[in-house]
Amino acid sequence: MSIRVGVDELQGAGFPMGGEPLVALDLADTLMTVTEPATDLIGTRDASATWWALQSGSLPPGPVPDAAATRRLRAAIRDVLDSHLEARDARPHSVDDLNAAASAAPMSPRLVVTADGIHREERWHTEYGGNAALAAIAAEAIGLLADPERLRLLRRCADPACSMLFLAGNKRRKWCTSNICGNRARVARHYERTHGDRSV
Fold first, then answer.
1. Nearest CA to 60 among 139, 142, 136, 140?
2. What is the rounded end-to-end Cα distance, in angstroms, of the chain?
3. I want to staple 19 with a disulfide (CB 3.0 to 4.6 A). Which of 1, 3, 7, 129 is the partner?
4. What is the pTM of this model?
5. What are phi and psi of 162, to 5 degrees?
């Protein structure tokens, strides 16, 4: 059973966004592309270890992925999701990297007999290399991209100073988080209403 980490837990650990239904989106959001240069939220060993530990309840067990492999998959996911939002073709190498990560550690169903009865389990095959966590994340991204109905829920935060992606559970959701970007918008609207144009 998968246990998703919540946005409050991620924010408490210093990550401004997360808790999306897919770890693939949370991974894409660890790179803030609106800053120059882009801000890598998992660019240090400690930040990376914290992020992976928080996400572990939603991922198959195994070692923390290599930093370079993580950055490569994150770039691929970000490109294919951005390409959808920007109505452009994804870069061919992004699609190749996504497929390679998903196939590097294939999954197979297993039947397990316990005292409680028969259960289905997933087994991730890392015998010949690959990382189960990265494969699972790549599979999530592929599943999202291949599901037109769910893909219609993909949004980029309406705050121009934010690059975070999310799945909008309802049509009214415009902000990655209501307590950061949504709050900024409310404060700006309130300021405009109360102060107006005083230059005249």
1. 136
2. 62
3. 7
4. 0.87
5. -135, 145
Return all residues near 131 (Cβ < 8 A) that are at least 6 apart: 62, 63, 65, 66, 69, 104, 105
Cα–Cα distance, 44 to 196 (Å, whole number): 43
pLDDT in tens, 69-120: 999 999 999 999 999 999 999 999 999 999 999 999 999 999 999 999 999 9
Nearest to 157 by CA among 85, 73, 61, 58: 85
More confident residue, 179 or 198: 179
What are phi and psi for residue 163, nearest 5 degrees? -120, 10
Domains of the chain and any CATH numbers = 7-153 (1.10.3300)
Whole-angstrom Cα distance, residue 150 to residue 146?
9
